[in-house]
Write a structure and sequence with these properties.
By secondary structure, the chain is of the alpha/beta class. It is built from seven helices and ten strands. The structure holds adenosine-5'-triphosphate (ATP).
Length: 244
């Protein structure tokens, strides 16, 4: 089976920080990425999305090498913490952009957009502008759009960070339901500052530290912190300076 994402010996330097990533994500797998501020989580996503180019190594998505492939041409979708929507377009057209970039929406596509809005609990919201919606509702619109696009890889960069715990859980459930409705669910790489978001959702979790993947494994095992004292320190189960 094709891997959704492979980073092979990828290197990148940001000012004084050297990054080095080796990673393989299976088709349909959900990977959470955690780690301290400045560890390189967003840089990892930038490299995969094509916003930054590695100085060495290769990145492949869905079996295709990505060197020289522009961000818009990569077979992936991204949801950020905010600014996912075009403020001048209504909700219907923000979602329709996922399948009709020129906003010419054929009747069959119209039904698909409406079904996607329904799937995220926003039936009837099509005529609203993003400014007339809550933060959680706006992120649901962003999810509806990426699921219409049907790409093999979905990058989530702290998409629910601005939401409270109950809303974050609700969004994770919506994401899980959207995946379950697809014959071939996309692989997900989800950067989060909330390790608890990974539990029950992410198959594996990667812990980034100082520009590399310091530990990776099944989510519950990784978050138990027993395998690596750096994970336990990050989670606060070992105090700084205390011996593991
Ligand atoms: N545009 C840039 N130019 C120079 N250095 C940068 C740039 N962006 C990030 N860095 C540096 O690269 C390192 C990794 O940053 P990155 O944003 O990837 O970390 P992060 O793990 O996503 O952090 P956070 O959790 O705070 O978002 C940091 O040391 C940061 O200062």
């Amino acid at each position: 089976m094709k891997k959704a994402l492979v980073l092979d010996n990828v290197r990148f330097a940001h000012g004084g920080s050297e990054m080095h990533f080796d990673l393989a994500v299976e088709a349909g797998e959900w990977l959470a990425v955690i780690g301290p501020s400045g560890a390189g989580k967003s840089t990892l996503l930038d490299l995969v999305a094509g916003f930054a180019a590695p100085s060495a190594g290769t990145i492949a998505i869905d079996g295709r090498a990505m060197a020289g492939v522009a961000p818009a041409e990569r077979p992936l979708s991204i949801v950020f913490q905010d600014n996912n929507l075009f403020p001048h377009l209504d909700v219907f057209h923000n979602v329709a952009l996922g399948i009709a970039p020129d906003l010419r929406v054929a009747a069959a596509d119209r039904r698909r957009v409406e079904a996607a809005l329904d799937a995220v609990g926003l039936a009837g919201f099509g005529k609203r502008r993003p400014a007339e919606m809550s933060g959680g509702e706006r992120q649901r619109v962003a999810l509806a759009r990426v699921f219409l696009r049907d790409r093999p890889l979905l990058l989530l960069d702290e998409p629910f960070a601005a939401l409270g715990p109950a809303l974050r859980r609700e969004m994770l459930v919506i994401l899980t339901e959207l995946r379950a409705g697809r014959a071939e669910p996309p692989a997900i790489v989800m950067v989060t500052h909330h390790p608890e978001d990974a539990v029950g959702h992410a198959d594996r979790t990667a812990f980034l530290d100082a520009g590399e993947i310091a530990a990776i494994g099944p989510t519950r095992r990784l978050l138990a912190g027993d395998d690596d004292p750096r994970v336990a320190r990050y989670l606060g189960t070992i105090a700084p300076g205390e011996r593991p």
